[in-house]
Amino acid sequence: MKERISHYPVLAFIALTAAITGSGWGLLLTIYGRAPIDALISQPLAIVLIYTGATGPSLAAIILTGYTKGKDGLRELGHRFTRIKFPAGTWLLAMGLPLLLAVMATLLHSIFSETLGDIVLPAWYRLLPPALFVALLAGPLCEEVGWRGYLQPHLLNRFSVTGTAVIIGTIWCFWHIPLSFTPGTTPPLSSPGAWGLYWVDTILVSAIMLAIVVHASGSILAAIAFHWMSNIALSGILQPLYPAATDSAWSEVQQIHLVLLAICTPIALWLAHRRINRDAEPNGHLQQRRQHL
Q1: pTM greater than 0.70
Q2: Transmembrane residues, as ranges (predicted)?
Q3: What average pLDDT is seen over the chain?
Q4: Are 20 and 110 in contact (CB under 8 A)?
Q5: How far is it, in rounded angstroms, from Cα 59 to Cα 20?
Q6: Which of 140, 160, 145 lies closest to 226, judged by CA?
Q7: How far apart are the first and last CA of the chain?
Q8: Is 81 helix (H, G, I), strand (E, B) or coil?
Q9: CB 31 within 8 A of CB 45
């Protein structure tokens, strides 16, 4: 079994992640039905089930690493999780690029339309820091040991940076499908257009995150930082400042944001490709052994 898992690490990861996530979010749907997320956050059991599903990728990565590589593998994974020493510019990109793109999308929309309304600082805005901390726990910390800590390096052993970004983005997108039955989380299955945009978004974000992690020497913290800021920049920081804005106006902002991501993606992939080649052996082959999917 260990040899088979080592031979097909990506398939093993997908299967185990689906099992863990499916158990948590499947029970959530069974017990609470299609209750919206706002109604579930006051239910302790619902919170446990939500986080159980969310930690599926990271738990799968830890279990598979421990089973196939033992303590040494877990130690190496832990070192990458705690690695904070990488170029300051990479930290700046991880934390600042999502916010910059969100601000640019909002400003571009404001130039051509007034549907967002005036900026109004909400009275509850002082409570934003603890709310943003919850957002850090809700996705990035639960997921990134799996997506960027385990899956990404295994895919890079076999595929190009573009192929890796597309595969991770696709898996990451459709991994969220069980949450589509919980209003207020991901797009509902009845909105294929919204899911299509969501799919494109996860691929573009995965490409940029790949470049950031590669330039951060594989640091999972860099991925967590970018994932966190990507989650909160528009909906958590900017959207509350425009209380008069309609849903359609914010949909337009999100579309502009998607275009900005698309502009950044080829640059990110080129930078990642160049860095990987620079770190390769003199004959041009990666130091890591290529593995089967």
Answers
A1: yes
A2: 12-33, 45-67, 88-112, 124-143, 155-177, 197-214, 221-242, 254-272
A3: 92
A4: no
A5: 8
A6: 140
A7: 16
A8: helix
A9: yes
